[in-house]
Specification:
With 87 residues, this protein is mainly alpha-helical. It is 67% helix and 0% strand. The chain starts with 14 loop residues before the first helix and ends with a helix.
């Protein structure tokens, strides 16, 4: 069945970004919301669609989409600033 709707943009993570997201997702001191958002970004970067990510994480697929872009942008900014040595 052909896919309907807007095409999904490809999400490509660098090794450093993937490592940082994995660290946030597994760290015991991370807030649950941050850990969940990191898991969403990692799953989408692995090529899973929003619906399957939502099912795997027991989450609403509309919320997956709304969290995906802001979380990826926030982590990229944090990662970039940490690499430069600024906070």
């Amino acid at each position: 069945m052909p896919r309907t709707g807007r095409p999904k943009a490809e999400l490509i993570l660098s090794a450093d970004e993937r490592e940082q997201l994995t660290r946030y997702a597994r760290r015991a001191t991370s807030a649950q919301a941050l850990a969940l958002r990191c898991k969403i970004v990692l799953a989408c970067a692995d090529g899973h669609d929003n619906k399957s990510v939502a099912e795997d994480l027991r989450f609403d697929d509309a919320d997956v989409n709304s969290m995906l872009v802001p979380t990826y942008e926030a982590v990229s900014v944090v990662h970039h600033s940490l690499r430069k040595g600024t906070r």
